[in-house]
Amino acid sequence: MTTTNELPEKNDFIRAIIRDDLQSGKHESVLTRFPPEPNGYLHIGHVKSICLNFGVAGEFGGACNLRFDDTNPTAEKQDYVDSIKEDVKWLGFDWAGDVRYASSYFDQLHAWAVQLIKQGDAYVDLQSIDEIRANRGSFTEVGKPSPQRDESIEVNLARFDDMKNGKYPDGGAVLRAKIDMAHPNMNMRDPVIYRVMHAHHHQTGDDWCIYPMYDFAHPLSDALEGITHSLCTLEFEDHRPFYDWVIEKVGFDNPPHQYEFSRLNIDHTLTSKRKLKRLVDMGVVSGWDDPRMPTVAGMRRRGYTPEGLRDFCERVGITKSDGVVDHRMLEFSVRKSLEDTTARGMAVLRPLKVTITNFDEAVAKFDELKNPKTVADFDGEVLWLTQPKHPSLEMGERRIPFTKTIYIDQTDFEVVPPAGYKRLSPENPEIRLRNSYVLKVNEHKLDDAGQVVELIATIDENTLGNNPEGRKVKGVIHWVSASHGVDAVMRLYEHLLLEDDEISDASLHEKEIIDADTDADTLWIKQHLNPNSLTICQAVVEPDLAKAAAGERFQFERESYFIADAIEHNADLPVFNQIVGLKDSFKPE
Ligand code: ATP
Ligand code: MG
Q1: Rounded Cα gap, residues 212 and 209, in angstroms
Q2: Which of 15, 263, 399, 526 is catalytic?
């Protein structure tokens, strides 16, 4: 590999700020946080945020908290909490101390809301949600003050108490910060900070019927934990004035500061929990951990490695400019992490039977060959070939049965080969079988439809570990014993979703998908689904591969990297998921 394989130096603007803050003594140490809302499974976008938050903490000798921003109980679940913890650990990171929950600060947050009311900085608004929205104004129009905006502190305290005590229905009252209804930043036009929601919470049960808004809970949770650098994505830039306002009004000596970086977007990939949940709910995937999902759980099941994901995030880097990353960059990083960590194996995905007519005579003579490179023993039926699991790394050995009938891949023989075809054909009947002899096809059998169904071949008995004499044989193909190979399911993947320019106008206008109850997300998903995202092959693998542990990864020679499926794989019916192809179609800059 060339120097392009080197990782760029981590010199992004966030690390520069932190370095300065530590050097100038503004902060003695760095404390960051990763603050997911437990309303879905983490996806590749979150991985970028995790790598940044935990990464800088590690690099600068600081720490990173894992805090669930659980202020919206109706969308949240314990299952999501559990999966997020598992995912962060799997990615190779560890949080400081216990997991934190914004909900464990509810008492404190409530007390601060009362403080704001007492300072004249917050009031209870009795307008409906629609009225509040309508009266906020627009970019060109100032907002209209609520009729309750100038109520006395006493009245507001009493009403806020009533909110807390369940005297208002959902939507019956909200607490708003009192800032400026004409502020050019809409987020500063008296934002809502508490709402009534009679809902059970996965952490606090039925203790509360009012819940703080994210924009109120988040900065105060940061301040409470002593976060130094609060790193979030660019869409929160406009929320920063309110972030600072809340912290200043409550009063903190060492306020945290929020810094924004660009979100990760990847072509062909959804990075929104809400939309990913829709895929699950629509049943177009088998679950959050479907190997086609860009969730951490899906990528884990697909066989992506934590090393690959971290490498990818480093390559993407941290900037303030939005863009769309080429998905092949992610595949590049995953592939790189597999090159020196996976054992080799042979799997035939589209089996074509080959009968070796001279097998018995040829193989019987094998031990007369003086080639120390090939270790083999013949038991009268099977020639057991001993080969290393990896050509250069110490991974032990495997025994590959070579028998009278074998399978090769259908694509390795063509009756009428296309130009430049280098594998078997009637004109080019000889090829090397990987780890074995040179094979010569003497005849091919066709079925009624003209498909090749069997090859009749011979092997050159002098070629086990030796070059053939008097001629050059180009090409090597993989194979599996027909009698000793094990049937296996191989799942090959393409993108779940197509890009706009890959879908036809017809699908955009298809009537049956635009039925009455199809909302925008569902419609978009239906239009963009790739019909070829999953292909299942009935394959045959060397017997050793059937013994693979669930979650074990391999390079199937000349095919792809594969992983034994964590859930469905077993020795009787091995199930492998394609991780990534063998060849790069992407070169990092
Ligand atoms: P989603 O829309 O998928 O739910 P979110 O931003 O609402 O994403 P949170 O659980 O609130 O999800 O996010 C936790 C952290 O992850 C936040 O700091 C957020 O900025 C960050 N994050 C989310 N999506 C991305 C992304 N695509 N790229 C980088 N960071 C992201
Ligand atoms: Mg969110």
Answers
A1: 10
A2: 263
Q: Of the listed 15, 37, 277, 558, which one is catalytic?
A: 37
347's tokens: 């799997």
Say if residues 271 and 49 touch (Cβ distance below 8 Å). Answer: no
Smallest CA separation from ligand 1 atom 14, residue: 36
| Strand boundaries in 297-429, DSSP class E | 343-345, 347-348, 351-356, 375-378, 383-388, 397-402, 405-409
User: How much distance in Å is there from the Cα of 75 to the middle of ligand 2?
Assistant: 10
Query: Quick check: is 510 catalytic?
Result: no
C-alpha 471 to ligand 1 mean position (Å)? 61
308 touches 337 (CB < 8 A)? yes
> Rounded to 5 degrees, what are φ and ψ at 195?
-135, 160
How would you class 298 by CB atoms within 10 Å of its CB: exposed for 0-12, middle for 13-18, buried for 19 or more? buried
pLDDT per residue rounded down to tens, the chain (589 residues): 333 455 556 889 999 999 999 999 999 999 999 999 999 999 999 999 999 999 999 999 999 999 999 999 999 999 999 999 999 999 999 999 999 999 999 999 999 999 999 999 999 999 999 999 999 999 999 999 999 999 999 999 999 999 999 999 999 999 999 999 999 999 999 999 999 999 999 999 999 999 999 999 999 999 999 999 999 999 999 999 999 999 999 999 999 999 999 999 999 999 999 999 999 999 999 999 999 999 999 999 999 999 999 999 999 999 999 999 999 999 999 999 999 999 999 999 999 999 999 999 999 887 765 666 778 889 999 999 999 999 999 999 999 999 999 999 999 999 999 999 999 999 999 999 999 999 999 999 999 999 999 999 999 999 998 899 999 999 999 999 999 999 999 999 999 999 988 887 666 655 455 555 668 889 899 999 999 999 999 999 999 999 999 999 999 999 999 999 999 999 999 999 999 999 877 766 6
Token pair in block for residue 379: 């038991």
